[in-house]
């Protein structure tokens, strides 16, 4: 059986950087806290937990404590609060996400309404919203949003995009927005690693009998890869690790394309590939 692994499978630059910052912080400091998960992968989360990094729901006194900002970013209000409470803040936000923050803040400062295309409750989107002073709008792919446009049609607007969205879906949304809003600017803030992963999965799905996408069910970019694969090749499966592989999938299968989300560790990918030595 032929196995093709996508070149971009696994950690992207932003995830690698965030994990390295977290590990170094845990090595150099005690009392390290985060308000959520550094990235969306249970294996990585457990590893950092073993290093002593704790999750908290509410910021208390920060004396002698570290507040570690996750790869997806945090609201400006929360970071300011951490500083005011005495935490030492260490920022592991992905640089590409920080760039979205800068664009959104700049456009708002120019008296433009901000529209974010993304998943409303995703940590990254909440972080972008948390950089802004005024009401902004989130448009979710595959959800109805026309009613929001009545409030915006006569206002200058700027659009930014959650970094892990599907570009084709975003283009469709922007076409609709342009019909309703006269003064609109579009910033394609989908990161290059995401775009590369999506290009590769489209090719893999066309050229192979079966597709496996590896990654956590909480990972937005992994979900997107699976959705793209499934739309092209119905024999596409989304797994978190090798335990979820089923022998019955591979009847009359000659080639398998494999990719993995941006927060999937390489050891998980290798474990999945090694399973196929038995076939």
What would the keywords be for this entry?
alpha/beta; Rossmann fold; Cobalt-precorrin-4 Transmethylase, domain 1; 3 domains; four-stranded parallel sheet; flat
Description:
With 279 residues, the chain is α/β, with parallel strands linked by helices. The protein folds into 3 domains: 2-10 and 192-278, Cobalt-precorrin-4 Transmethylase, domain 1 (3-Layer(aba) Sandwich); 13-94, Rossmann fold; 96-186, Cobalt-precorrin-4 Transmethylase, domain 1, CATH 3.40.1010. The protein is 41% helix and 17% strand. The protein is built from 10 helices and 12 strands. Strands 1-12-10-11 form a 4-stranded parallel beta sheet, with helices on both faces. A 4-stranded parallel beta sheet has the order 3-2-4-5, with helices on both faces. The chain has a 4-stranded parallel beta sheet with strand order 7-6-8-9, sandwiched between helices. α8 runs parallel beside α9 (220-232). It is flat, with a radius of gyration of 20 Å. It starts with a strand and ends with a helix.
């Amino acid at each position: 059986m032929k196995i093709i692994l996508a070149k971009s499978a696994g950690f992207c630059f932003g995830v690698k950087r965030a994990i390295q910052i977290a590990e170094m912080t845990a090595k150099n400091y005690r009392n390290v806290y985060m308000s959520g998960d550094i990235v969306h992968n249970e294996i990585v989360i457990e590893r950092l937990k073993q290093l002593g990094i704790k999750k908290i729901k509410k910021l208390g006194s920060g004396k002698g404590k570290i507040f570690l900002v996750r790869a997806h970013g945090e609201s400006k209000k929360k970071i300011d609060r951490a500083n005011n409470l005495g935490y030492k803040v260490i920022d592991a936000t992905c640089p590409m996400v920080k760039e979205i923050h800068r664009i959104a803040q700049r456009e708002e400062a120019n008296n433009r309404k901000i529209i974010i295309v993304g998943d409303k409750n995703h940590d990254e989107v909440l972080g972008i919203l948390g950089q802004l002073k005024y009401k902004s709008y989130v448009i979710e792919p595959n959800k109805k949003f026309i009613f929001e446009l009545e409030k915006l049609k006569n206002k200058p607007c700027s659009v930014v995009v959650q970094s892990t969205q599907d570009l084709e879906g975003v283009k469709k949304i922007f076409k609709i927005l342009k019909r309703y809003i006269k003064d609109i600017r579009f910033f394609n803030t989908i990161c290059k690693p995401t775009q590369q992963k999506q290009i590769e999965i489209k090719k893999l799905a066309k050229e192979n009998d079966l597709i496996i996408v590896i990654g956590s069910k909480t990972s937005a970019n992994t979900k997107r890869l699976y959705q793209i694969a499934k739309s092209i090749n119905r024999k596409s499966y989304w797994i978190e690790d090798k335990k979820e592989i089923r022998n019955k999938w591979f009847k009359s299968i000659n080639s398998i394309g494999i990719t993995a989300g941006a927060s999937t560790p390489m050891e998980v990918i290798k474990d999945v590939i090694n399973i196929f030595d038995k076939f």
